[in-house]
């Protein structure tokens, strides 16, 4: 059933009135926070599309993107590039930088002063250029274009002595170097260059005449995965953002690494502000492999070298449009490897946008996920704009993978809901959930929201909304009602990971409503559904506690043996 089919009963009207009251009180979603920016529609006419000449797969990705975003063929540039992922600095200049400058100038897409066709443009103190006009703002690099530039000490010059030893280097990602293409040759190649647009939101500043270019990459472990990034971005823009947010902190409260937790904590606040159901983990370790990571819209966490925990499972429930980031010094070292580090695995598992570093970036100079989420959540801003704004340094080692024209969030949830109703979008349930969450975050009465959702017709067919009702009843210690609604949600074909979370919560709510026998049966269903829980001590101990409460002697003995087995196996591994 869709909203257009709803009878306008009093409860439905009451819910709509609550939403209208929020809109009057809060304004359009986050619009006030970004009121200084003028948001205009972005299309393919602002894009230069770059692919590897003679590489059919690279051209195929480019053509797929061009069709999706209406990029004029005159904006397609084929470069003869090495098949290696990393280039020397001279190779970067001769294969990428110089040909791009020449083609942009020849095609009238950018104009430059002091344009000099020299291969030594990159040398400190050498000839420099400046962009004086441009009809494009985005550079999209397609699968097959190299992503690394090697360190070359011979180019450091005397300025290197002004930097600490670890920063006396000039390696970079191709992407980050190209962000400064409009000012090629005008800066020294030592460490990175401070980004004048860091944490800025004024869209008119994101322009080549200010010395910067927005660069994105359509890439991944395979060309098919790269093409899928475009399809998922378009699906999200058409149907609305969906999914939950998961923020995995390390509980660092002091020292140099504290800023990482601060960034992610602030990103979690943004996620809540835009109505995403947001889970924050404060334990030092990353999320365990059996964590019920369902319907991921946003994931931000740190700090392990390779994808682990729930991301090591065969399938991850990334929603179309999902933004995923795991901070680690080398998280982007091998973005075309589906089994190494983080970027490749996240893309292979279904993320639509991810970002990181191909070499040691140092924490302060990694992309700031709070800035990314702040800008995207404001509505209408693109991944390319968020990427540029989130980096303190350019000509550095960072890269963003995903469609830079992708704008995940709309500014007006009510307009989005109307579009979803008209198009019978499957994501309508997520917009209703986001609206309810926003009202709750602004001190709306949980009982009012809960009762309105209970009587909202879509809720009876939506496992997402039914689970929300169950959790609201549980928050009010009305556990029998929580049990009833969790059971309803389980009957509505939830996703596998949502089902796991519902079963775990259902068992707790059954126990709290003194239905311990049912709680123990529910945990037995978890065990049948997910065999990995058989080796979880906390899970077995919870079963044991319920068995003791019910005085089930044989079950108590069995569970004690299971716990001893798990502990013995853990000791053997040591």
Question: In terms of topology, how is this protein built?
Answer:
Blueprint: H1 10-26, E1 47-52, H2 56-69, E2 76-79, E3 86-87, H3 89-106, E4 110-113, E5 130-134, E6 138-142, E7 148-149, E8 172-173, H4 174-178, E9 193-194, E10 214-218, H5 223-239, E11 244-248, H6 258-273, E12 278-281, E13 296-301, E14 318-326, H7 343-349, E15 353-357, H8 369-377, H9 383-389, E16 393-394, E17 398-401, H10 413-423, H11 428-441, H12 446-454, H13 463-475, H14 479-490, H15 496-512, H16 516-529, H17 537-549, H18 553-573
Helix pairs in contact: 1-12, 2-5, 6-8, 8-9, 10-11, 12-13, 13-14, 14-15, 15-16, 16-17, 17-18
Describe this structure in words.
This protein has helices spanning about 10-25, 55-70, 90-105, 175-180, 225-240, 260-275, 345-350, 370-375, 385-390, 415-425, 430-440, 445-455, 465-475, 480-490, 495-510, 515-530, 535-550, 555-574; strands spanning about 45-50, 75-80, 85, 110-115, 130-135, 140, 150, 170-175, 195, 215-220, 245-250, 280, 295-300, 320-325, 355, 395, 400. With about 575 residues, the chain is an alpha/beta fold. Among the domains are: about 45-225 and about 360-400, no CATH class; about 425-574, Tetratricopeptide repeat domain (Serine Threonine Protein Phosphatase 5, Tetratricopeptide repeat), CATH 1.25.40. The strands form five sheets. It has a six-stranded mixed sheet, sandwiched between helices. It is globular. The protein starts with 9 loop residues before the first helix and ends with a helix.
């Amino acid at each position: 059933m869709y909203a257009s089919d709803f009878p306008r009963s009093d409860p439905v009207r009451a819910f709509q009135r609550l939403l209208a009251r929020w809109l009057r009180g809060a304004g359009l979603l986050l619009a006030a926070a970004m009121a200084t920016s003028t948001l205009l529609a972005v299309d393919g006419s602002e894009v230069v599309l770059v692919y590897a000449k003679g590489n059919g797969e690279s051209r195929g990705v480019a053509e797929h993107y061009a069709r999706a975003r209406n990029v004029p063929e005159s904006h397609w540039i084929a470069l003869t590039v090495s098949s290696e992922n990393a280039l020397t600095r001279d190779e970067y200049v001769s294969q990428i930088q110089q040909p791009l400058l020449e083609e942009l100038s020849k095609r009238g897409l950018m104009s430059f002063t002091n344009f000099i066709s020299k291969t030594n443009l990159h040398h400190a103190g050498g000839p420099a250029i400046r962009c004086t006009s441009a009809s494009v703002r985005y550079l999209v690099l397609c699968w097959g274009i190299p992503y690394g530039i090697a360190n070359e000490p011979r180019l450091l010059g005397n300025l290197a002595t002004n930097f600490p030893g670890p920063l006396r280097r000039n390696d970079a990602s191709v992407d980050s170097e190209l962000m400064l293409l409009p000012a090629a040759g005008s800066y020294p190649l030592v460490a990175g260059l401070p980004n004048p647009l860091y944490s800025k939101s004024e869209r008119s500043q994101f322009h080549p005449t200010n010395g910067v270019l927005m660069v994105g990459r359509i890439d991944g472990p395979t060309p098919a995965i790269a093409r899928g990034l475009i399809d998922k971005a378009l699906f999200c823009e058409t149907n609305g953002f969906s999914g939950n947010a998961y923020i995995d902190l390390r509980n660092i409260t002091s020292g140099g690494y504290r800023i990482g937790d601060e960034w992610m904590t602030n990103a979690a606040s943004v996620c809540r502000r835009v109505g995403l159901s947001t889970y924050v983990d404060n334990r030092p370790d990353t999320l365990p492999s059996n964590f019920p990571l369902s319907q991921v819209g946003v994931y931000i966490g740190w700090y392990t070298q390779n994808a682990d925990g729930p991301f090591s499972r065969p399938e991850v429930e990334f929603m179309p449009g999902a933004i995923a980031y795991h901070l680690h010094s080398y998280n982007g070292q091998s973005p075309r490897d589906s089994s190494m580090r983080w970027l490749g695995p996240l893309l292979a598992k279904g993320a639509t946008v991810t970002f990181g570093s191909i070499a040691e970036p140092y924490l302060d100079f990694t992309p700031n996920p709070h800035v990314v989420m702040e800008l995207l959540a404001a509505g209408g801003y693109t991944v390319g704009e968020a990427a540029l704004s989130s980096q303190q340094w350019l000509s550095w080692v960072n890269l963003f993978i995903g469609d830079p024209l992708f704008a995940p969030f709309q500014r007006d949830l009510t307009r989005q809901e109307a579009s979803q109703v008209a198009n019978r979008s499957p994501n309508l349930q997520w917009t209703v959930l986001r609206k309810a969450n926003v009202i709750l975050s602004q001190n709306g009465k949980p009982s009012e929201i809960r009762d309105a959702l209970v009587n909202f017709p879509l809720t009876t067919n939506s496992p997402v909304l039914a689970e929300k009702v169950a959790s609201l009843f549980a928050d009010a210690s009305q556990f029998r009602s929580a049990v009833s609604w969790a059971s309803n949600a389980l009957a509505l074909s939830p996703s596998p990971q949502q089902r796991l979370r519902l079963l775990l919560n259902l068992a707790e709510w059954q126990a709290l409503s003194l239905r311990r026998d049912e709680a123990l049966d529910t945990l037995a269903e978890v065990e049948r559904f997910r065999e990995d829980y058989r080796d979880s001590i906390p899970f077995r101990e919870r079963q044991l506690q319920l068995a003791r409460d019910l005085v089930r002697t044989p079950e108590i003995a069995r569970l004690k043996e299971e716990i001893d087995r798990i502990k013995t196996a853990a000791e053997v591994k040591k």
